[in-house]
Design a protein that fits this description.
The structure is a single chain. The chain has 118 residues and is mostly helical. It folds into 2 domains: 4-46, no CATH class; 52-118. It contains 2 helices and 4 strands; from the N terminus they run ββαββα. It has a two-stranded antiparallel sheet. It has a two-stranded antiparallel ribbon with strand order 3-4. The longest helix has 61 residues, at 57-117. Residues 97-118 are annotated as: Disordered.
Length: 118
Amino acid sequence: MTVELGGMSLEKYVKSRLPGGFHRDRPEEMRYCRRCASRRNGKIYHQPREPKVSHDVSTLDRRFRAYADTRKKWSDKMTAVTAKKDAALERLRTISEKEKEMEEREKKLEEENSRLKG
C-alpha cells in the first residue's frame, strides 16, 4: 500500500523530514528555502542547518549562570513589586476601615443630636 503526500510516497516524506537530509527526494517546490540555500554555478542547493552546539562545558556553565542571574534579578524585582502592592492594599484597607468608623461615629452623633433636640 502506497500513501501519497504532496506527490511523495510515505517513505520519501519521512526521509525528507529526517535531520540533514534526503532533500533530493522532496518535490521541487519543497527542496529549497531562502534561509539555508547556497548558489553554486547558478543553481540553488539546499544546505541543512545544523544547530549550534556548545561542547565546551565552561560556555554552557557561563550561559546557565547568566540565565540564573537574570532569573534571580527578575525574581527580586517581582518580590519588591509584590511587597509594594501588598503595602498599598493594606493602606487602602486601613483607610476604608477608618472611613467606616467615621461614618458610624457621625451616625451616632446625629442620633444623639436628634434625641437632645427632641
